Amino acid sequence: MELKLKQINDDVFELDVRGNTCPFPQIFTELALKRIESGRLEVITDNPPSARDLPIVLKRRGYQVELEKEGDHWRIKIWK
Question: Nearest to residue 51, comparing CAs of 73, 30, 34?
């Protein structure tokens, strides 16, 4: 599987994990967070358990997180 991470602008990155089920969205998110030094990572998922669980895990690790529903998927914004 490929890490679909792209840079949107200077400090915003987007990771598309649609089509992946647990635990892959969390694994890919952790890999992406290791690759970016600072800024905001936006994770796009269509997996309801990931949309529910990822923000909880990330907040416990000290990240600021926002979750938005966008049609048939969610956007999880993570500040690093």
Answer: 73
Question: Can you give the pTM of this predicted structure?
Answer: 0.93
Burial class (CB in 10 A: 0-12, 13-18, 19+), 8: exposed
Average pLDDT, the chain: 95
Q: Give the domain 5-79 fold.
A: Translation Initiation Factor IF3 (3.30.110)
Q: 3-state secondary structure string, 26-60?
A: HHHHHHHHHHCCCCEEEEEECCHHHHHHHHHHHHH
Please give the pLDDT value at position 2: 74
Average pLDDT, integer, range 31-59 = 96
- Residue 10 has which token pair? 């200077």
